[in-house]
């Protein structure tokens, strides 16, 4: 007799009372009677890791997200046992662990609650796949707001939203569409003007509910793996973001040309078309540093090959492009065409480098070349092999950078758009299914690409670009937001995505200017360019199915507007490079939402349009057609209109005029903005003078400019120039002090300082306590002077 018995699904399981406690240095363990272990690790006084295991065991501890060079160490750690709870105390926070149910509450040293568990950790057995669906729910307090989470196409404040992190090819995605191309499970909470952060380091499909289902509950959960999250205490958003960025890492400095303007299309071919595009940039004097080759440069879309009909001599073409100041960037996808005559395919077959399904056969999927197999980039041997495939392209032909696309991995003609969930991966010696490895697949591909490009580009710096990413991918490459659409709505989306990515540790990011799908009109293209020149990565990319999208494609009026804004980006190149330096040194995001700039001003908590570029420029794009201007909010401080020098006090919303040739752009009072002359490409001209726009302030403001050789690694050996300026303005005086670090000698010897808002007429000038002849410093009215670059103190007196 056979009896059918259905396994009773037990639903949510919850930890019960603590029966064991122990401390091992920075790790504290709590074990419950029903087999839950909570491991609390104090990384820093303000950074704590919470890790939960069930059935008395943890999984092997491994993460692709964590930076090997993360700063660790705390000043104080004590654990006290009280009647209802254990209390873990650092110099910044107190953590209460409830003895009855393992619930966690975290408070600051003033006993203000930062975050507290609602149901807390709970789990549900996954009978379909094994393991657990792991869950965490926390109280959403009144007025609490949420930010971060990477490339979400939603309002910067995620309160009331639910999002899903499952890296997905999302062609022509829309506002609030989920999921998208990246998985960055990190958010910043803001409660009573105090900021904290949570990073849920779990590479399975993860979900976050920011008080969407229940107005007083914020929760996050994953389809498998462990409940493993990091808590960051501010109290400023700046401190939260910098701590998270330190944990997950930053890139090296890019070559300066990578911050220039880039032009791409699906696709530029044959060779003559590429040359014609490059020639027209130079003929029209529109600055550009890089041209991209999409998949059509390959032979039958086979990676690491060239179509000899379209590109008979790629090495010669690339050399000619380089002579004219253009870098060539090539695309490489993960899908390897099944073709026994194709050397890349055969190498992977011979070495067992392709992904296999659960029962043994190789996983196959259709991509551009047709039926393909996919390398397992979570295997270090595969990454090493893949890196070496770039030798001919980089060292042999002279390609300057690589663009990894379709690396979610995207698979065509299947409902899931990606690999089967039963595909097996090495996961660096921790074998798993695609359920766990999917979100890191693109990250590990671009990691291998980065290692190869860096190896064969040496002694120059690498440039790599990715579409798919998991937290920490910023260590290897730039990114962009995927296949957007030529609509005004997508202009708004691009703006919020850049702010969100920068606050999520990923600053080197941009969008497809003008939209990838469909065709913008000239007004939309111009408005998008006006925004995108203030994004860290600046590239036009479009689908060839929808017409031309070069800067000259929309008539002379738009061409002139676009040229002027690209020129402005090149003028601001030292400011932009300094922003990047600050990002890698401090983890400070290159763009900041207004709430990041001033979290105590509640007017900033729901602003989406305005953002801070670097630390001293305020940008607000025009995001609707036929606009002659717009209303915008000015945060704390005083702001000079970049175009008119009008000074506007912060803390107010105002109408700002912005006809088609202008964007609302403002400079912080007291700022010193470094500028280069307009160049057609980085390195075209030797910089003979450093321009500095000096914006008067009654009071003090600090500025800086970082420079090096713009290429290579000598900057790591001290061959850089970091100039810090302290500006102090008084009623009839302006004092500028300079402090210099590094031993790089800049090619120029002179600063040309242009003054804005001086309330007095210049009468005398002292350099290092010695009065100078006004003719010697080329005093131009009350507008500008020229001084030697190595002064310690510049003192300007007026009346």
Automatic annotation (TrEMBL):
Start and end residues of each Glycoside hydrolase family 31 N-terminal domain: 38-209
Pfam families, alphabetized: DUF5110 (PF17137), Gal_mutarotas_2 (PF13802), Glyco_hydro_31_2nd (PF01055), Glyco_hydro_31_3rd (PF21365)
Keyword Hydrolase among UniProt keywords: yes
Domain DUF5110: 690-757
UniProt domain Glycosyl hydrolase family 31 C-terminal: residue ranges: 587-673
All copies of domain Glycoside hydrolase family 31 TIM barrel, residue ranges: 251-579
Database matches in PROSITE patterns: GLYCOSYL_HYDROL_F31_1
InterPro entries: DUF5110, Gal_mutarotase_sf_dom, GH, Glyco_hydro_31_AS, Glyco_hydro_31_C, Glyco_hydro_31_N_dom, Glyco_hydro_31_TIM, Glyco_hydro_b
Molecular-function GO term, any one: hydrolase activity
Recorded family membership: Belongs to the glycosyl hydrolase 31 family.
Name under which the protein is recorded: Glycoside hydrolase family 31 protein
Organism: Flagellimonas halotolerans
Lineage of origin: Bacteria, Pseudomonadati, Bacteroidota, Flavobacteriia, Flavobacteriales
